[in-house]
Amino acid sequence: MRHRFFCIDSHTCGNPVRVVAGGAPLLPHLPIFERRDLFLRDHDWVRTALMFEPRGHDIMSGAILYPAHREDCDLAALFIEVSGCLPMCGAGTIGLATVAIEEGLVTPKIPGRLAIETPAGRVDVEYTMDGERVASVRLFNVPSFLHSADVRVDVPGLGPLVVDIAYGGNFYAVIEPQENWPGLTGMTASEIVTHSRALREALAGIGDKVVHPENARIRGVHHAVWCDGPDGPDCDGRDAVFYGDKAIDRSPGGTGTSARMAQLHGKGRLAVGESFRNKSLIGTVFEGRAEQAVTVGDHAGILPSIGGWARITGHNTILVDDDDPLKHGFQIA
Q1: 78, 94, 67: which is closest to 312 by C-alpha?
Q2: Percent helix, strand and coil across the chain, each rounded to 5?
Q3: Which helix H or strand E contains 124, and what residues bound it?
Q4: 18 vs 44, 80, 124, 178, 303, CA distance in Å?
Q5: Closest by alpha carbon to 18, among 9, 29, 27, 6?
């Protein structure tokens, strides 16, 4: 049997976003978090087939469109990437919104706004048009917060580090320059990957303690964001977001930038109403903003927004043949 997926490929500030617009598995009309559980149980091969080689690559990410279950949302999305089926993805949301509007996949209830049902909760998007093209997107992310400050961890190859654990749709270890890590300048991508893997392993012991207070199924630290100061007047800081086994986000990271702002706010360094322009390794910038103060469980946090852009790169009909020995994809360590 040959499975056929109609995909619209795009990139958000440099990071690939493959939007699955046709051919995805049919799922019961349930809240998207429950559909995510069913997808992971019965259909995760779709994710690996579309994200892993030979149809994808080490930093591939994407989103699958579904009808919204919530009446206050325009559509629902499952975020797929090499690291798994995420509760939320900022770059994926910006790419998804751009593709959905430009390709006519959705008619928003309110022109200029999209409400998206994600496994992490409702996410709102504002967009501006330039003719038939979506010129810019501002994502209003889920409540974000500093979970744990000043966590001391011994990282092989670096030594003792002090990191913060913050949530911006996914949990992140947030690392700033310090004695045993001088910052991003001069670091290669392979060094960031090596250090991130070692850091994640070192943090594995506290995974059971890092739990979202309002959704216990969101837990553990699987991502890292390595942060540094600005390198020019066009940004307030820089970062490298690590996910999966060896992926570095080419964009500044939507959930990563949200977690970074939540960490800064939690430490009294970013006030509500202030902006934080975050630059990626390739020089693209997300304009973050702390929109308002919130409380998540016992944690003080913020509602962050992220301004960015995406571009469609092509239409792609992908075939997965049951007779293909590599039908579900592969990764090389």
Answers
A1: 94
A2: 20, 45, 35
A3: strand 121-130
A4: 16, 9, 20, 37, 27
A5: 9
| Grouped pLDDT means (10 residues each) for the chain, 333 residues | 97 97 97 97 98 95 97 97 91 96 96 95 96 96 96 96 96 97 94 96 90 92 96 97 90 96 98 98 97 97 98 98 97 86
Mean pLDDT score of the chain: 96
Copy the structure tokens of residue 15: 């990071």
List C-alpha distances in Å: 257 to 35, 85, 132, 167.
27, 19, 29, 10
| 54 prior amide bond cis, ω within 30 | yes
Q: What is the pLDDT of residue 72?
A: 96
Q: Catalytic positions, please?
A: 89
- Helix pair angle (32-42, 44-51), 10° resolution: 80
- Smallest Cα–Cα separation from 173: which of 206, 217, 215? 206
Distance CA 16, CA 314 (A): 11
